[in-house]
Each structure stands twice: as structure tokens, then as C-alpha cells.
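Re: your question about Oxidoreductase

S., sorry for the slow reply, the queue was backed up all week. Below is exactly what I fed in.
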Amino acid sequence: MMKGSGWGTADIPGLSGRVAVVTGANSGLGYVTARELARKGARVVLACRSEARGRAAVERLVGEVPPAAVEFGRLDLGELASVRAFAEGLPYERVDLLVNNAGVMAVPYGTTADGFETQFGVNHLGHFALTGLLLPRLLAAPEARIVTVSSMLHALANIDPGDPGSRGKYRRWVAYARSKSANLLFTHELTRRLRGSSLLAVAAHPGYAATNLQAAGPRAEGRRGAERMMELANRAFAQSAEAGALPTLYAATAPGVRPGSFFGPSFAMWRGAPAPSWRAPWTVDDRAAAALWAASARLTGVDFDARAPDR
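Result:
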């Protein structure tokens, strides 16, 4: 059962001997997540697109947590070849924790290296492929977990079965919401497929946390006014990245977490200590989840059996 409203990083259990992979760990929520896992003794791979920023994050983290065992791994979720290369090059026979954290938000229309709409491709398809490619190592670890980071803004839009990648009329916030609904549908279907396994698939969201994610879209288009407005809103209304990472850390480490759970801030999905979070009803639709899984496997070429191996 969840502890009271004061759950924090001090409640994270010891993680010595565990291997964790955190995507998008060079800044924001991902960095805080990686730092706190390392502080508790986990060996953490910071899986980042930019080598310069990733290696700088490793240096910064070791400075903050001197005994930390952390390393950089290059991973571009917008390029399936990079996802495969990362998985193949990971020098560990088992992975105890995969945190699918990286993402983009409300960016201008664009496509990934493989031709997918950027938000759907990076936020969902890249993580779908990464999870599948790392699954044998996750199944090899006792009581491993897969935590996928969604958003409270998933409630703005359901996946369009006929156009999951928003190839029709593109609306940046709708596309973002669809990608975050896809994160939850993926967790739902993965949970169904993992029945009988000790491997948990769960999800989390940060509420409204101040990171560089909000301003990235306006910055990419040179919309200085919108960028400035996002920065001011972060200062006025958002909680810190440290607070925003708590639901992810809870989902990743707390005892008693149930398969398929979704955690977020306790106060109106906005801020506060981790708690079970409301989710839109379409994110627990069995047929939609299975259809998205089939489409994702076809698009990525990664189709994986998530059943526990015979022991």
C-alpha cells in the first residue's frame, strides 16, 4: 500500500546491484530520476540523444552524488537504428528498471528519421521498440519494472485508430495528447501480456513540473513571445523538477505497486506527493490497446512476446 502524503526520495529503498536505464536523463525529470536512483545505489545508464549533453549530465551527477555509478549511452528515440544500436550495445545481461521518460511536447510538425510524426515517433514508438529490444534482459531480472512517463494532458485526445501518427490535419497539442494516451495504452496492453511474470509495467506523470520541455516547441519555431510565456508560467504555477519526478520514482521503486498502475501528483493531478492518478477511460480499452500494439509492432519492426519464460 502507498504511504501517506509525505512520500519522498528518502523513502526509496536501497538499489545496490540493480541496473537502471533512464531515457532523456540529461535534464529535467529524467536527470532527477537518474540522480535519485543512483543515490540509492543503482547503476544508471543515462540514455540521451546528445552525447555532449549526456556526458555533461554524467559529470554533473557524479559531482552531486560522488559514489554514483552512472554512464552515458547514446539513444535517439527518433531513429530506430539508434534504438537498436543502444540495445545491442548495452553491456548488461539484465536490466532491473527501464524508465521511458524522454519526450517532446507540442513541437512543430516534423517527422523522425523513419518517417513518423515526431511526437508519436519519439514519445511512443521509440519507447515501444526500446522496451521490446530490452525485454529479455528485463525478464532476466527478478521483479524488474518498466515505467513509462505519460502526462495529465493525455486527457485532451484519444488515439485516432485510422491516423495514430496525426498524418491528417496536424494540431500540436492534440498530437502530443495522442502520444501520451499511446503511452498509457501501451502500458495497459503490456500489463496484460505480462500476466504470470514478476516484471511490472506501470506509468506515471509529473503533473505540471517546470522543465525545458514546455518552451522547446515555441523555441524551435522562433516564437519568442510564446517561449517567454511558457517560462513565466513555469515560474508562477509549476512545481519543481524534483517534485515532478516523485511519481516516476514511486512507480519505479515503492513496494506494493500493482501492475498497470498510474501515478501522479496528489493535488488535482497538478502538484503534491505521489498518488494513484485518474486516467481517461479510453486508455484502458482492451481493443484499442491491442490495435495500437499491432500497429506499433508493424511500424517499428519490433514485435515481442511479453510472456514470462518457462522456469
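The chain has one domain: 14-300. The CA atoms of residues 215 and 230 lie 6 Å apart.

Happy to talk it through on Thursday.
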